[in-house]
Amino acid sequence: ITSETYILLTTRGVPVDVDGLPRLLDSDAGYIGVIGSKRRWDTCAKLLAERGMPQEKIARVVSPMGLELNAETPEEIAVSMLAEIIMLRRGGSGEVMAHAPEIRKQA
Question: What whole-number distance in Å separates Cα of residue 62 and Cα of residue 81?
């Protein structure tokens, strides 16, 4: 795991997240995202803090992850998450391309 590594934690429960995240947070990963709602992440973050995880490490986690697309289906949610990763890797803005000033300048 390097600073170029993007990790997406997609478990089905807070207990699994809380058990797995300490090792990930001690890594050099450049991105650690956890799938789920803000409420789920708040619960997870609270439990990590109660177990002694420093706040600066907890703050590394991106959750909920993904771009706001009003995604509903699993496929749409996956596209939203991967779109965020691509945006971060490539330095994108997340704007609609037709409205992005940099794209218009290149035309």
Answer: 11
Tens digits of pLDDT across the chain (107 residues) = 999 999 999 998 999 999 999 999 999 999 999 999 999 999 999 999 999 999 999 999 999 999 999 999 999 999 999 999 999 999 998 888 887 776 555 55
Enter the pTM of the model. Answer: 0.85
Assign domain 6-106 to a CATH class: alpha beta
What token pair was written down for 22?
């300490």
3-state percent helix, strand, coil for the chain, nearest multiple of 5: 50, 10, 40
- The three-class DSSP label of residue 80 is helix
Q: Any idea where the domains of the chain sit in the sequence?
A: 6-106
Amino acid at 81: M
